Amino acid sequence: MIDHISVGVSDLERATGFYEAALAPLGLSRLVTRPATVGFGKSYPEFWINLRAGMAEVAPESGVHVCLRAKAAADVEAFHAAALQAGGRSEGAPGLRPHDRVKYYAAFIIDPDGNRVEAVTFP
Asked: I need a surface site. Which of 6, 43, 48, 56 has the fewest CB within 10 A?
């Protein structure tokens, strides 16, 4: 249903380094580099970062977040650890999240621009 997504970043170089580290455990790598945008994916760019000079940090109450699929719980854990090491903040440590309809294993981070990103798997 969704072909690709993008998030705005205020510093393309900083964000590129952050996402190269954070997305690697999920099997995503940098595939496209342009002057104001970078695309990450497995076989085609499915996650983009776009330079928005002068962008303010994304407000926590915006409610917007991106969720990316991981193959296993270990990948979710590696994503979380890599994101924190690269300058992100935790918004939910890796763990099982039981809900009414489905149990899933996820971690939530906030990138240096305030974008909220989740990695999830369904054990």
From this structure: 43
**Residue 40 belongs to a domain with what CATH number?**
3.10.180.10
* 42: nearest Cα among 67, 69, 15, 66: 69
Residues sharing a CB contact under 8 Å with residue 72, sequence separation 6 or more, in sequence order: 121, 123
Q: What is the pLDDT of residues 55-78, one digit of tens each?
A: 999 998 898 899 999 999 999 999
DSSP sequence for 3-61 = --EEEEES-HHHHHHHHHHHHGGGT-EEEEEETTEEEEESSSEEEEEEE-TTPPPPPGG
